[in-house]
Amino acid sequence: MKQTKEQFQKIKDFDHSVRTPPKSGKLPSEKLKSNWMRYLNFMKNESTTRTIHLYERCIKDCPLVPEFWIDYIEYLEEKNMDLNRIQSVCQRAVRNCPFNSTVQIFYLKILEKQNVEHSVIQEAFQKSLYGGMQKPKDYLDLFLFYCSYMRRR
I need a surface site. Which of 20, 67, 116, 136 has the fewest CB within 10 A? Predict the structure, then answer.
């Protein structure tokens, strides 16, 4: 009973720390991002369903933060979730963070794992090149992944 009460208090404190989402179209402050990450890391030890709901809430409040999407996708993979579910999350991540090569690569990897037709992966790769990545290294990482995929094919 006491342990449950302490856990509830921790969750309540975490919840209060992330209560104010950033204004629409704005990036969250570093403090808010840090609070979300601490909350998500705490919940990873809890029920998978509750953790997934918290990730969904997080990306609803902070859809432009690639770190949250990446962490969410890695969590789903770690829990061996259905590939269709992971693909759906990857598609939303790519739509919200097209400027992040890691998100793009996760999406391409999931498509490859699902054994989709080459033309679908090729089209996703072509779209990823127009994502507006800021650094040449991002494009390099994307091309290296695609070359590795072509070699495995």
Answer: 136
